[in-house]
Amino acid sequence: MKPLTTIGWREWASLPEWDIEIRAKADTGARSSAVDCSSIEELPDNRVRFTMRLSRKTNLNMTLEAPIAMRKHVRSSTGHGRDRLFVETTLRLGGREKKILISLTCRKRMIHRMLLGREALSGDFVVDSSVDHWATPRKRKKSK
């Protein structure tokens, strides 16, 4: 069994199947993972089209389609429950890759576009909540 990979409370996560790199917050209090989406549209043949908001500071969005992996009632941190669609993709973080389920939801009021919950973290990662970006270096702003 591989030793656990230490990550910080937030990291740059890659979703290689979608060619996306996104800042994600590790949240061991959340069971499932979530990504910030708008325009979630169910399609025929158990598929979904959704637009991921990739940045809070810019209008960088990406529209994707994926098979619906699961439908589940999820209670948010505020205690409100909603039915959500989940899709499956590969997470690449800290030298590891694993398949994870991600719920599609509106997180536009949240600071981080992606939340990594216990189901995605368990068995592979341990979170050092005192550290920001342990496994992935911070992106440096380009100087003029």
UniProtKB/TrEMBL annotation:
<dbReference type="InterPro" id="IPR021109">
    <property type="entry name" value="Peptidase_aspartic_dom_sf"/>
</dbReference>
<protein>
    <recommendedName>
        <fullName>Retropepsin-like aspartic endopeptidase domain-containing protein</fullName>
    </recommendedName>
</protein>
<dbReference type="Pfam" id="PF05618">
    <property type="entry name" value="Zn_protease"/>
</dbReference>
<feature type="domain" description="Retropepsin-like aspartic endopeptidase">
    <location>
        <begin position="7"/>
        <end position="131"/>
    </location>
</feature>
<dbReference type="InterPro" id="IPR008503">
    <property type="entry name" value="Asp_endopeptidase"/>
</dbReference>
